[in-house]
Amino acid sequence: MAKLTAWDRQRVALRAEITTAACALFVQQGFEETTVDQIVETVGISRRSFFRYFGSKEDVLLGDLSARGDAVARALAERPDGEDPWDALRAALVAAAPETFSDPVADLAIARMMHETPSLRARLFEKRRHWTDALVPLTARHIDAPDAQFTASAIVGAVLSCVDTASDAWIASEGKADMADLYDRAVTAIRTPRRQAAAGEEAAAGQEAAAGKEAAAG
């Protein structure tokens, strides 16, 4: 990996400073109510400098999403051939999972903001397209079938939907639920046919009833 120059480190530091200041304003005032002018005034830079780092206000929150998708793709590329595609994708998502903010209240507020703001949701889905393009061919390596590409596309789409479902449920829980558990529950709901699940529930109920009768007879 190439060593960062002093200029590179300065750019990284300023980008982080802009992001931190903007997120604080978003949490304090709301996303729609916060302007680029307020952000640059807080940081002490010009609008021109702001737009060197971010294409829009939305990109302050979502600007690293493409890079995060690249990280998931790299992690997926390192998974062993023949691994179940669902398991491989889960492992890649975990490996590339971003660190949460040090302030859990801010973390939840920003997640809710992204969930409730139409412009952020639209930008999120736009950037997620980059993820799909990168992950589908890598997922296809784990599928031994003539229609591997088609199946991989369906699985990747389902996995990303499960991520969104888990995120929505995490927000609804006020950040108390475990994201990994929510994701696993969403995947199980997709992968377990409803008739099979119903049969399992009936079998469990039957076993409980039988156990109750035995206990009563004893």
CATH class of the largest domain: Mainly Alpha
CATH homology group of the largest domain: Tetracycline Repressor, domain 2
From N to C, what is the helix and strand string? Answer: HHHHHHHHHHH
Q: Which regions contain 5 or more consecutive residues with pLDDT less than 50?
A: none
Number of helical stretches of at least 4 residues: 11
Shape descriptor reads: globular
What do we call the CATH topology of the largest domain? Tetracycline Repressor, domain 2
Mean pLDDT over the full residue set? 84
Q: Care to count the β-strands?
A: 0
Classify the beta-strand content into a percent band. Answer: under 5%
Q: What is the rounded distance between the termini?
A: 71 Å
Based on the coordinates given, report the CATH architecture of the largest domain: Orthogonal Bundle
Radius of gyration computed on alpha carbons: 22 Å
Main sheet overview: none
The helix content is over 70%
Please state the structural category.
mainly alpha
Overall structural domain count: 2
Keywords: DNA-binding, Transcription, Transcription regulation
Pfam families: TetR_C_14, TetR_N
InterPro entries: DNA-bd_HTH_TetR-type_CS, Homeodomain-like_sf, HTH-type_TetR-like_transc_reg, HTH_TetR, MftR_C
Region (Disordered): 197-218
